[in-house]
Amino acid sequence: MTDGERPNLSGPRQHLAHLRFVTACYQAARTHTPVNPKELR
Fold first, then answer.
1. Nearest to 37 by CA among 14, 18, 11, 9
2. What is the pLDDT of residues 15-41, one digit of tens each?
3. Distance CA 16, CA 30 (A)
4. Which listed residue, of 1, 34, 40, 41, carries a Cα 20 to 30 Å from 15's Cα?
5. pLDDT of residue 27
6. Nearest CA to 41 among 19, 12, 20, 11?
7. Are 37 and 18 in contact (CB under 8 A)?
8. Are residues 20 and 40 in contact, defined by beta-carbon separation less than 8 angstroms?
9. Which long-range contacts (CB under 8 A, 24 or more apart) does 7-11 make?
10. Distances in Å between the alpha carbon of 31 and those of 13, 23, 28?
């Protein structure tokens, strides 16, 4: 949070992980292959 006492749970790392997942979903739809979210790191 902005007061510095608690971590920001929606920081850049979480947004990048979400973007990685969305990108993998679009690629899977294009190539007709499944996506395993556990492999996206």
1. 18
2. 888 888 899 999 999 999 998 888 877
3. 21
4. 34
5. 92
6. 20
7. no
8. yes
9. none
10. 27, 12, 5
Q: How far apart are CA 39 and CA 12, in angstroms?
A: 20
Q: Which two tokens stand for residue 24?
A: 């993998």
Rounded to the nearest angstrom, the gap between the alpha carbon of residue 39 and the centroid of all alpha carbons in its chain is: 11
Which tokens go with 23?
Answer: 């990108």
Task: Yes or no: say if 32 and 16 are a contact pair by the CB < 8 Å rule.
Answer: no
Please calculate the CA angle 31-33-13 and round it to the nearest 5 degrees. 95
pTM given for the model: 0.63
CB 35 within 8 A of CB 28: yes
